[in-house]
Amino acid sequence: MDAPRRGLAALDADAFRHVVGYLDTRTLKSISITCHTFDAMVHVSSLWEAQFRRRWGRLNFAMDPACPCIVSPRLLAHCRGRCFRLLTHAVRRCPTHGDVEHSTIAASARSYRFLALPPLSVAFDGHDDYMGGHCCVRANAPFPVGVHATVCRVGDAYCNGLSRHTYFEVSIAHAEDASRPSAPPPMVSLGVVDGHFSVVGSQPGWTGVSLGYHGDDGKVFCDSVIGESYGPTFGVGDTVGCWVLDKAVAFSHNGVAAGAALPWPSNQGPFYGLVGVNVPHVVRWNFGQMPFAMPNAACTFMASNASA
User: Fold this and answer.
1) What is the CATH number of the domain that holds 158?
2) Of 307, 301, 283, 84, whose CA–CA distance to 169 is shortest?
3) Is 61 in the same domain as 109?
4) SPRY domain: from which residue to which, for each copy (predicted)?
5) pLDDT by residue (tens digit) across 181-225?
């Protein structure tokens, strides 16, 4: 007669998956090597999808539990039932919003303060006399290095894959306080900078290791105050995006590529997304929490799985 099963082994499959769903990935791995039965049960895709959602939410942003996760077709073809286990181990900290505290500390004065408007927007909240003084808000974290898991909202689902690339967008709206003056000419810029870039007194692309696309003239700047023609101008009502590719940066404008990819001037990271403002406009960041205006942005993540 077989000995009665005890502990976890006595649970049916559904109860077992419910219990171990609360464990971390390291403990799950330990369980999987103790017994052939456990090993088979902890490889269930739904268990690892829950682990992936939990880890992504802890390091980045919480995914809506009502929205399903859709795995990249390329990743699905290569890994089949192991996709979410691989994705869980590939989660890295990624930028998710603007870091207004960093800008305020760098300015050392309330005159350059930015206001966080949860969940994803920021607005200049300093003294009106400093309007036009060229202040920036940096993303809260640098872009991840190497292959990493990606999450981007597509309709009522999340697209998940592996990529070496990053894409984000910002949308520009009028100030909540319409009585506030606006500096002439109003300008919002978008770009990529290294960790040493000063967020006060400059715009992305003017100084240091930085590259920026400026809304007032549609030019790109790279470590120079002299820009080159690139794409359309942009302002209130527009959404602009930025791809950080392998040794290149490209921008989008209202869901369309604004221009060609530009060589990135440095290999020495870390690198951050940056928004420059000299007006009290509200700027909303999007790192995949909402559908992108660029319709094939998610496909760009998927396609990069081939080289990952």
Assistant:
1) 2.60.120.920
2) 283
3) no
4) 163-291
5) 555 567 899 999 999 998 888 899 999 899 999 999 999 999 899
